[in-house]
């Protein structure tokens, strides 16, 4: 099973992009379980819709996870929409701060989103992928809200990870890490 993790197509900031650390942590959790994962940072690479869809077609993922903040929510919704229009069988998953708060409303208003991961995504996203891979019902995946045919289901919340040392190291190797600007360099310019 192939998983693509991405930032939304339309950036919300004119500042230089920061590496998507949350996606790197989720990718690390997926790789630890031997899933094939790719990260596309649309903020860094500035993909337009056509070039993004071309990369999706080439990679051919089963699941696409899109990170979402309040500032880039419309870009995230548009990313899910263009994915579903071109590839209706891909499971689209939204996660991040904004979907955690507005999970039910997103599924009510955005038909191209299949699943919303609420809260910390490392364990919840992995659990969702395992269920999708096995064709199992998502009823017992804690921390998600999802569409079950035409009905929206809100599962119980998942506990926070108590020991962060249990999480694998972020999958930095999936990012073009050297292309991100160094924000620390301005603080250490006096050396």
- The share of residues in extended strands comes to 15-25%
CATH architecture: 3-Layer(aba) Sandwich
How widely separated are the two ends? Answer: 48 Å
Report strand order across the widest sheet.
Answer: 2-1-3-4-5-6-7
The 3D shape can be described as: globular
The first-level CATH class name: Alpha Beta
Total number of distinct structural domains: 1
- In the predicted model, the low-confidence regions spanning at least 5 consecutive residues are none
Under CATH, the topology is which? Rossmann fold
Q: Level of helix content?
A: 25-40%
Q: Could you tell me the number of beta strands?
A: 7
CATH superfamily: Response regulator
Which features would summarize this protein structure in a list?
7 helices; 191 residues; alpha/beta; 7 strands; single chain; Rossmann fold; globular
Report on this model:
With 191 residues, this protein is of the alpha/beta class. It has one domain (2-158, 168-179): 3-Layer(aba) Sandwich (Rossmann fold), CATH 3.40.50.2300. Helix content is 35%, strand content 17%. The protein is built from 7 helices and 7 strands, in the order βαβααβαβααβαββ. The protein has helices at 21-32, 42-45, 49-59, 73-86, 97-101, 103-109, 121-134; strands at residues 2-6, 36-40, 63-67, 91-95, 115-117, 144-148, 151-154. It starts with a strand and ends in a 37-residue tail after the last strand. The model has no long low-confidence stretch (mean pLDDT 89).
């Amino acid at each position: 099973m192939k998983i693509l993790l991405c930032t939304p197509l339309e950036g919300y900031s004119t500042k230089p992009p920061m590496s998507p650390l949350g996606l790197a942590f989720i990718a690390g959790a997926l790789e630890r379980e031997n899933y094939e994962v790719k990260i596309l940072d649309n903020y860094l690479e500035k993909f337009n819709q056509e070039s993004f869809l071309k990369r999706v077609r080439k990679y051919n993922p089963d699941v696409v996870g899109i990170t979402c903040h309040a500032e880039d929510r419309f870009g995230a919704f548009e990313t899910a929409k263009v994915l579903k229009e071109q590839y209706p069988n891909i499971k689209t998953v939204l996660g991040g701060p904004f979907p955690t708060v507005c999970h039910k409303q997103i599924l009510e208003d955005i038909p191209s989103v299949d699943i919303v991961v609420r809260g910390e995504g490392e364990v919840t996203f992995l659990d969702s992928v395992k269920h999708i891979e096995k064709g199992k019902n998502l009823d017992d995946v804690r921390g998600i809200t999802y569409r079950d045919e035409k009905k929206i289901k809100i599962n119980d919340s998942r506990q926070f990870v108590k020991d962060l040392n249990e999480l694998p190291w972020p999958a930095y190797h999936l990012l073009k890490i050297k292309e991100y600007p160094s924000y620390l360099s301005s603080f250490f310019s006096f050396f």
